[in-house]
Amino acid sequence: MGIYGYYFAIDDKLVQQIDVGEIALENLNIADYPGLDIDRSWEAIHYLLCGDISDGEPPLGYVVPMTSDKGIDFGSFGAFILRAEQVAAALQAMSELDEAQLRMRYDFPAMAKEEVYPLESDSVSDEDEDPFFDYLLQHFNEIRRFYSQAAAEGKGLVFYLF
Questions:
Q1: Does position 65 have pLDDT exceeding 80, yes or no?
Q2: How many other CB atoms are found less than 10 A from the CB of residue 144?
Q3: Residue span of the structural domain in which 87 resides
Q4: Strand partners, 10
Q5: pTM listed for this prediction
Q6: In total, how many domains does the chain have?
């Protein structure tokens, strides 16, 4: 069993209402909103972009938003919300990164040593380095496309783990 990351895009006003507690996230039917499953890549992508497993500096910290001060109760692991302007800022930052720049940020030995999810030190080998980067790149590109669509529509996002 793994822990998966999932985004869904919602109207920015709805994000604001969730943020101030007017609407409970549990009351939304998530299937009614455009979504993106990023499998188990969430912590590793955050680490790739921010150099840490959580609380990354904006705007790259908004790509996989895992800030301890912005978490809300939801499911087993909580959720994180982004307003439309944060989505746009994250998209701009992602748009400035190409594959070569991501490759320069990629430190597989450090990720393995720190057991960045989903890596487990006892089952990681040097042979995993390139395939793992490809896995992260694939999901990063999917996130960028998803943020692009949400930003074009002026939507905010909810990110949660399940």
A1: yes
A2: 16
A3: 5-161
A4: 156
A5: 0.94
A6: 1
Q: Distance from CA of residue 94 to its chain's centroid?
A: 12
Q: What are 131-143's pLDDT values in tens digits? A: 999 999 999 999 9
Starting at the earlier edge strand, list the strands of the sheet with 35-37. Answer: 35-37, 5-11, 155-161, 79-82, 71-72
Looking at the chain, the whole-number percentage of residues with pLDDT higher than 70 is 97
The string of DSSP letters for 31-94 reads GGS-EEE-TT-HHHHHHHHHSSSS-PPTTGGGTTT--TTSEE--TTT-EEEE-HHHHHHHHHHH
Judged against a pLDDT cut of 80, whether residue 70 lies above it is answered with: no
Which strand (E) or helix (H) includes residue 130? helix 129-152
CATH code for position 143:
3.40.1760.10
